[in-house]
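Extended Data, record Substrate-binding family protein
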Amino acid sequence: MNKRQTIAALCISTIALSTALPVTALAQNNTVKVGLILSLTGPFASTGKQLEEGARLYIAQHGDTVAGKKIELVIKDDTGAPDHARRIAQELVVKEKAQVLGGFALTPLALAAAPVATQSKTPSIVMVAATSRVIDASPYFVRSSFTLPQVTIGVAQWAPKNGIKNVVTLVSDYGPGIDAEGSFTKQFEMSGGKVTEAIRVPMQNPDFAPFLLRVRDLKPDAVFVFLPAGVGVQFMKWVFRLIVTADSGIVTGQSGHRDHRFR
């Protein structure tokens, strides 16, 4: 078993994580501290709040004791800022004596905390950040979520088989967006489609109007979109304002009856 497999095995159980650490870390009491670095305010708060609620729900259903050791969650708000994530990781390890770190809604947040996890040898669980290379940032990182290629390759294979041959990609201009763009484009074109233009939107205060007007002018069969949580509602408002009409749309799901086309 290699080092990362060992860390993954430890992360299956919080109590197993605690037994892998020095005895001095547990000498004061029988409590295992798990530091969660979450985006609870700012544009990405919806993701952080879901992670917090999921952790608290698990404890409510299964209790806060494992093998006689009490699990204590220490939750900190990184506000979606990488510099805050790094500072909080340091505080959790040094001041709070957290034996495990977790959270990381966005790739930049995980990358900012990685040096802290490595230096302190603290096992850390990446719960969302989905850029493929994230876990390479620290040998103490494991991921419990997914990667962008995993959720883009399927639709890239499906689209050409269903008459979608001409696509524009529109992604946020940071690691996960570029990862998603690259994975989709490679598989889509291997499957017979053509990406006619790749549009990247700034992460901070994105104004979607000029980008969507460009999409409308290009008249693709479909648009492949990746945006971080928190800005999706804003994006869809602009889509319906600038693109969707009574005769064309992007309705999907069981109630969708129109073709996935832009006029």
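Summary. The CA atoms of residues 206 and 231 lie 9 Å apart.
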